[in-house]
């Protein structure tokens, strides 16, 4: 039985060394970014968001060392920049935490937090969340997962932030490299109670739920075969590797990206070295 209180991918967390430098990098790729946000003193982090529909990308940076952000600091030290975590949308975080507990996984949380949000009219509101995590050790393909309940969607999905010069509309896939795609896909399936399916090239896809993006587990060689014109320098042997995004118009995407992207089959692809350790593949849709 699929989890009732946890639905598909909500957002991808890309951890960066310097938030403002990373923001400029992603702006140059044609993304509209939110104003910089600051989390609580306990969390010790800040972010920029790239709002899509119905999901988004979060650029996360450490502002102060705290006990809470030790895993993220370890990730940066060992891997460098890139996709550290994927969030699911939680309908009810407390109920979702109990659901995974009943399946033998001790949740971390739920934890409530908020951050101030400057609104287009010049006022300040707050984005409020309740999140819980699967155990840190339960990281399929080296990818940590958690669930996020949005208490104030109107302060996160702000219409003025949802139009991007590069045409990006929605996440379609989260790419996870691993020496053993079948094993890590099975691990993910067990955590979220959703079946995987094998692809022709040996990759394994696990649906995240609803109309949300899929997880695709594949080896570095399989990823290289999918995007042969793209350098994978900087990607790990195991971990979050990239995102596939739907664009409303690939001609618009191509114009916005210019020389920062290469054509690879039906995709326009930005190398990880040009997007803070994250391969970006734009497809029509």
TrEMBL record:
Residues 8-150 form the VOC domain. InterPro entries: Glyas_Bleomycin-R_OHBP_Dase, Glyoxalase-like_dom, VOC_core. It holds the Pfam family Glyoxalase_3. This is VOC family protein. It comes from Bradyrhizobium aeschynomenes.
């Amino acid at each position: 039985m699929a989890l009732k209180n946890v639905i598909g991918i909500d957002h991808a967390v890309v951890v960066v060394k310097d938030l403002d430098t990373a923001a400029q990098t992603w702006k140059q790729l044609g993304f509209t970014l939110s104003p910089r946000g600051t989390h609580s003193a306990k969390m010790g982090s800040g972010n920029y968001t790239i709002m899509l529909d119905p999901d988004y990308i979060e650029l996360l940076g450490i502002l102060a060392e705290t006990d809470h952000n030790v895993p993220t600091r370890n990730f940066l030290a060992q891997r460098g920049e890139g996709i550290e975590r994927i969030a699911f949308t939680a309908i009810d975080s407390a109920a979702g935490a109990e659901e995974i507990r009943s399946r033998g996984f001790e949740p971390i949380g739920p934890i409530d937090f908020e951050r101030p949000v400057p609104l287009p009219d010049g006022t300040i509101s707050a984005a409020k969340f309740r999140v819980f995590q699967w155990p840190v050790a339960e990281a399929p393909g080296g990818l940590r997962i958690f669930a996020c309940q949005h208490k104030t969607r109107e302060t996160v999905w702000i219409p003025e932030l949802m139009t991007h010069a590069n045409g990006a509309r929605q996440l379609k896939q989260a790419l996870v490299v691993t020496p053993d795609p079948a094993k890590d896909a099975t691990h993910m399936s067990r955590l979220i109670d959703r079946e995987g399916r094998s692809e022709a090239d040996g990759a394994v896809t696990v649906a995240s739920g609803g109309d949300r993006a899929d997880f695709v587990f594949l080896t570095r060689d399989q990823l290289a075969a999918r995007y042969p014109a793209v350098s994978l320098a900087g990607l790990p042997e195991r971990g979050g590797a990239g995102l596939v995004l739907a664009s409303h118009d690939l001609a618009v995407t191509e114009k916005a990206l210019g020389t920062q992207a290469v054509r690879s089959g039906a995709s326009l692809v930005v190398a990880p070295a040009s997007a803070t350790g994250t391969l970006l593949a734009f497809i029509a849709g």
